[in-house]
């Protein structure tokens, strides 16, 4: 029986040469009569070849059972005792596999079944995709078979999640699959007949071949259910490179259970029960070459034939004929087996040619199907602009075969019916009977267009939509149904209904298909990589929009038009039309304007489009849906089209014109038809790339700090080489280049000034081309700030002082509070302090003391409630008695920028205003009076509390705690039996220039909560006039010593004398020198410009000398008089009179940066 099976397998699989040699490697039923005895398979049968254990794998791989003797034809081999290592359980034959030469084939048959070693008490199990069993060749006999081992070539048995079985080549690609319903088992009870954990008897037949291609083996298989007769066979031969086993002369034959065969925590194991096994090698098996699957791409006076790479092929021959049946002329012969295409040139455009390709291997050959080529004239520029009028040469009837329009052969006939009378149009509606719901109805323009990088297709389509009504009653708006029925029953018929198009559940209706395609036969399909598709698709309630390479709610362009903008109302749902004469089934004339371009990004095309109503002027817009699905432009990968040298333009009625996704589906809406009034197409080669600006990041496009603005944006087009960051000091520009960024989507602008607001836009660039500007975002450089924040998390507490008696602690060494941290950071919005947020955690210690009455041992303690960022003080039990609470953090731990000495802050620094804020203060003992919270500072060992205070549920804000006008009270921390009180304390105004602690003081409180206290240093310095001048001139480099326009005049000079730092021809107004007589005295009159303002950042001075050779011009000259005069709003003239008598002979104006 097995021999006949092997012969059938060989006969079905290959043509065998007369010199073929067959060698049997193993052929057994595992019976005692064959030398197998019960027990382990290792060392059996008694005669060679014997099975031996593969070292480094678990033992006891197979157990022989033949207790009934050879009277049983199906004795079993069971796999048990899975083992604990991670290499599975394997055995090998001690004899090798009888060689390993090119054209050798190994054929095997295994009768087996699978079972789970634990049946789970009959309860269904959840399977996983698991490899169970491997069988095949290896160059070593000391390791398992694995897909990553190039020294192995084998077949894998694998379970899928649903219980079906996969048979793979080298543990990866499926050769054949046995569906669960044909396995005979159902561990998951997915078929509903109860869980079954043992398969029927199955037969796996496989063949593995060593090809003539270096390192490559091929394999194919079939699987049969011996009980039911169901049989599944490989659709094609799989090829894998296994270079190590390929070069080995005598590989071993191994089989075993895979290390992954267990599941459910390793307690359950798949077992393979092998009943019969045969494996043999046949040498010198000449293969039958596979017929090449040839495709053809017609070009300008040429045709390119291509076919996929084939194994076991020596060479190819290409033949051509003027007829499909010959005679055939040889176009080329002896093409190398590494070549899979051929281009026939010098052909006549628009003439049909027939080709076929023959593959050879030795004396064997395989002939392809005949393919057709029709070389095309390649055109560019304006391709067509037609209205389908008689004056243009059109006649009534099918559009196909008029002008250059040709029917796409793989689609339905009569895509458009032409009415050439009057203005002309082409309509899909008259051909409803021939509408192909499987492939649609399409025509293409027969002239081809080149498809190089930046090739661009653009044009317009003017059209009207119409919807076909269903029989029945009109669909009306339910709110108005009674009034409508009452009002129109006698005025219109009620025997039609139109159903909604493009509801939320069904948005895949395509009204019009446009495409660039390389095929003259394949139906238009957005998923076809050989096409670039732009679809006009319906939306809910008969709206409209376009989508690029998508039939659903993805990659939609910002071209949404609601029904009222389209000028129709098929659903009779427009509120303004509810009492009119009924639904409107035809839209106004709509214009689609489109552009498609092949980008420099590999495989990518980009498109954008607009829709407009030619009657009302209404235009399309963003429909407000998910920005990740709707955009101004989309790009999409279409590798097949991208690789083609030429493409054609096609248009048609989609198979999705009624929303059905598959042939035979029930229509979910009215069928849409399109009447095209005119259509145009222009093609250009090597046009400027279509570049679109990137979009800002949605979260924080510009994050401002005290030193920089950090910009982030989303990736742009694939062809984009980088981005240009432009900046302005003015809302709306003008903008100047701030930076050029390559391969990044963020930029940190550090060339900034405190509290300035900068406005940014972005551009994409590719080579010398760039996009338009993006939308604008802004960022304000915030002053250097330090925010002190007291808070914490958790539910533990600690006493600030540990004695039973009252105590004041002013040693800066108080007990660290558990789970309470001090946070520091910067967070200012639009230049002003805003909501506080943590920017990091410092390793600081919260310090302080609590003052209570001496006789009261039940002092307040610090308790950190579960509420985050909340410090709570409460009595530790006993009699309710208040406490005075002082809490502070050392200034040196605030990470403040103005520390003037170790642990000190100068709060009077002119550059900053230190704003203090305390909020969410709560005194929960409402019966107690005099409950106040005040700000606290320590200056030179003296404590001060603010005169200003806050009460329950209020806020304390002090604009500038370092201001001399801020009122403070001196806090006496001497231990006393009574609380210190602010009542009657004199107001003081200390100079707070050495503050080493900041916090709060709460007097007379029992249960107190304070959520936050913050101190922020806000920049208070005036911006110099020079900085403003640099901003006005959009200087990227506003260093006074810089010369951005290269005219030799530094920024300092051009600022001081009214020059233009961006114009080399304008260095400013030069000073003038003259001699004048005033009151009988001679003076040198020296006149120069001077910038007006109090904070110029520049000092003007006039220097002199009497000898340029020996004495430098360093002395500041004597000025007898100085007069100011008007020049313009920014500058004034300064006239200096310098006595002429004396040694002064030479003068110079000097400008110095302050």
Automatic annotation (TrEMBL):
The keyword Signal applies. InterPro entries: FN3_dom (IPR003961), FN3_sf (IPR036116), Ig-like_fold (IPR013783). Residues 1-20 form the signal peptide. It comes from Pontiella desulfatans. It comes from the Bacteria. This is Fibronectin type-III domain-containing protein. Keywords: Signal. Residues 288-383 form the Fibronectin type-III domain.
């Amino acid at each position: 029986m097995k021999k006949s099976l092997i012969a059938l397998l060989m006969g079905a699989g290959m043509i065998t040469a007369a010199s073929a040699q067959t060698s049997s490697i193993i052929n057994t039923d595992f019976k005692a009569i064959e030398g197998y005895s019960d027990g382990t398979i290792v060392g059996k049968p008694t005669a060679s070849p014997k099975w031996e254990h593969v070292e480094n794998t678990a033992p006891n791989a197979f157990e022989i059972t033949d207790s009934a003797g050879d009277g049983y034809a199906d004795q079993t081999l069971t796999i048990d005792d899975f083992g604990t290592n991670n290499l599975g359980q394997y055995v090998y034959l001690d004899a090798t596999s009888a060689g390993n030469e090119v054209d050798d084939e190994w054929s095997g048959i295994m009768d087996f079944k699978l079972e789970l070693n634990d049946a789970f008490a009959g309860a269904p199990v959840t399977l996983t995709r698991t490899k169970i069993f491997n069988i095949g060749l290896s160059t070593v006999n000391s390791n398992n078979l694995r897909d990553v081992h190039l020294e192995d070539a084998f077949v894998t048995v694998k379970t899928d999640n649903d219980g079906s079985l996969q048979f793979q080549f080298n543990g990866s690609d499926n050769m054949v699959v046995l569906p669960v319903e044909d396995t005979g088992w159902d561990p998951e009870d997915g078929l509903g007949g109860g869980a079954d954990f043992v398969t029927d008897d199955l037969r796996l037949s496989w063949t593995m071949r060593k090809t003539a291609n270096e390192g490559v083996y091929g394999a194919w298989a079939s699987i049969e259910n011996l009980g039911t007769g169901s049989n599944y066979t490989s659709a094609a031969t799989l090829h894998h490179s296994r270079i190590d086993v390929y070069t080995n002369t005598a590989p071993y034959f191994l089989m075993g259970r895979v290390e992954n065969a267990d599941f459910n925590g390793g307690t359950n194991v798949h077992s393979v029960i092998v009943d019969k096994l045969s494996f043999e090698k046949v040498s010198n098996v000449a293969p039958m070459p596979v017929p090449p699957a040839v495709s053809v791409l017609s070009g300008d006076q040429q045709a390119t034939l291509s076919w996929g790479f084939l194994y076991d092929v020596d060479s190819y021959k290409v033949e051509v004929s003027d007829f499909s049946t010959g005679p055939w002329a040889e176009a080329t012969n002896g093409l190398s087996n590494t070549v899979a295409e051929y281009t026939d040139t010098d052909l006549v455009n628009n003439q049909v040619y027939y080709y076929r390709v023959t593959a050879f291997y030795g004396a064997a050959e395989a002939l392809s199907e005949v393919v057709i080529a029709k070389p095309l004239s390649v055109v560019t520029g304006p391709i067509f602009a037609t209205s389908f009028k008689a004056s243009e040469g059109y006649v009534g009837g099918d559009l196909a075969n008029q002008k250059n329009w040709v029917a796409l052969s793989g689609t339905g006939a009569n895509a458009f019916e032409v009415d050439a009378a009057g203005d002309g149009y082409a309509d899909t509606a008259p051909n409803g009977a021939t509408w192909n719901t499987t492939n649609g109805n399409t025509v293409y323009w027969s002239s081809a267009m080149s498809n190089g990088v930046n090739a661009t297709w653009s044009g317009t389509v003017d059209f009207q939509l119409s919807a076909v009504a269903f029989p029945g009653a009109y669909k009306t708006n339910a709110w108005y149904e009674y009034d409508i029925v009452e009002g129109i029953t006698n005025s219109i018929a009620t025997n039609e209904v139109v159903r909604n198009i493009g509801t939320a559940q069904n948005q895949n209706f395509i009204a019009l298909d446009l495409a660039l395609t390389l095929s003259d036969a394949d139906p238009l399909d957005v998923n076809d990589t050989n096409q670039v598709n732009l679809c006009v698709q319906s939306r809910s309630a008969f709206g409209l929009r376009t989508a690029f390479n998508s039939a659903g709610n993805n990659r939609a362009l910002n071209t949404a038009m609601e029904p009222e903008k389209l000028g129709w109302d098929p659903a009779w749902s427009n509120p303004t039309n509810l009492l009119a004469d009924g639904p409107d089934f035809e839209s106004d004339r709509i214009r689609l304007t489109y552009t498609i371009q092949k980008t420099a990004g590999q495989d990518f095309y980009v498109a954008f489009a607009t829709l407009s109503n030619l009657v009302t002027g209404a235009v399309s817009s963003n429909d407000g849906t998910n920005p990740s699905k709707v955009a101004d432009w989309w790009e999409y990968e279409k590798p097949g089209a991208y690789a083609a040298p030429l493409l054609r333009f096609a248009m048609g009625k989609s198979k999705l014109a009624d929303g059905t996704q598959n042939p035979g589906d029930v229509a979910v809406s009215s069928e849409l038809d399109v009447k095209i009034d005119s259509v145009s197409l222009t093609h250009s080669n090597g046009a400027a790339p279509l570049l679109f600006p990137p979009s800002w990041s949605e979260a924080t496009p510009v994050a401002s700090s005290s030193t920089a603005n950090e910009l982030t944006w989303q990736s742009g087009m694939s062809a984009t080489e980088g981005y240009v960051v432009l900046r302005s000091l003015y809302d709306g520009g003008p903008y100047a280049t701030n930076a050029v960024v390559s391969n990044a989507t963020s930029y940190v602008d550090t060339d900034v000034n405190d509290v300035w607001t900068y406005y940014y836009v972005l551009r994409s660039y590719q080579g010398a081309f760039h996009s338009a500007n993006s939308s604008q975002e802004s960022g304000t450089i915030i002053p250097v700030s330090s925010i002190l924040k007291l808070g914490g998390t958790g539910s533990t507490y600690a006493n600030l002082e540990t004695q039973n008696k009252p105590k004041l602690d002013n040693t800066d060494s108080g007990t660290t509070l558990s789970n309470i941290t001090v946070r520091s950071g910067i967070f200012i919005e639009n230049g002003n302090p805003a909501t506080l947020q943590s920017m990091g955690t410092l390793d600081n210690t919260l310090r302080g003391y609590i003052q209570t009455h001496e006789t009261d041992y039940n002092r307040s303690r610090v308790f950190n409630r579960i509420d985050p960022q909340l410090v709570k003080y409460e009595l530790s039990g006993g009699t309710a008695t208040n406490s005075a609470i002082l809490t502070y953090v050392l200034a040196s731990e605030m990470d403040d920028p103005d520390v003037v000495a170790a642990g000190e802050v100068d709060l009077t620094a002119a550059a900053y205003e230190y704003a203090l804020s305390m909020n969410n203060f709560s005194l929960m003992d409402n019966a107690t009076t005099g409950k106040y919270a005040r700000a606290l500072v320590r200056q030179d060992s003296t404590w001060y509390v603010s005169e200003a205070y806050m009460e329950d549920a209020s806020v304390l804000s002090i604009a500038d705690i370092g201001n001399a006008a801020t009122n403070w009270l001196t806090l006496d921390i001497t231990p006393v039996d009574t609380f210190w009180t602010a009542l009657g304390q004199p107001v003081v105004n200390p100079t707070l220039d050495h503050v080493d602690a900041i916090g709060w003081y709460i007097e007379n409180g029992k249960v107190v909560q304070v959520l936050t206290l913050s101190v922020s240093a806000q920049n208070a310095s005036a911006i110099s006039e020079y900085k403003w001048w640099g901003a006005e001139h959009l200087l990227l480099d506003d260093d006074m010593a810089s010369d951005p326009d290269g005219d030799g005049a530094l920024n300092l000079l051009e600022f001081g004398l009214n020059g233009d730092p961006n114009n080399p021809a304008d260095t400013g107004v030069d000073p003038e020198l003259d001699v004048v007589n005033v009151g009988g005295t001679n003076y040198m009159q020296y006149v120069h410009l001077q910038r007006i303002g109090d904070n110029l950042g520049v000092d003007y001075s006039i220097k002199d000398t009497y000898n340029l050779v020996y004495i430098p011009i360093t002395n500041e000259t004597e000025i007898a008089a100085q007069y100011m005069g008007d020049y313009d709003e920014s500058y004034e003239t300064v006239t200096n009179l310098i006595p002429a008598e004396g040694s002064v002979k030479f003068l110079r104006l000097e400008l110095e940066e302050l």
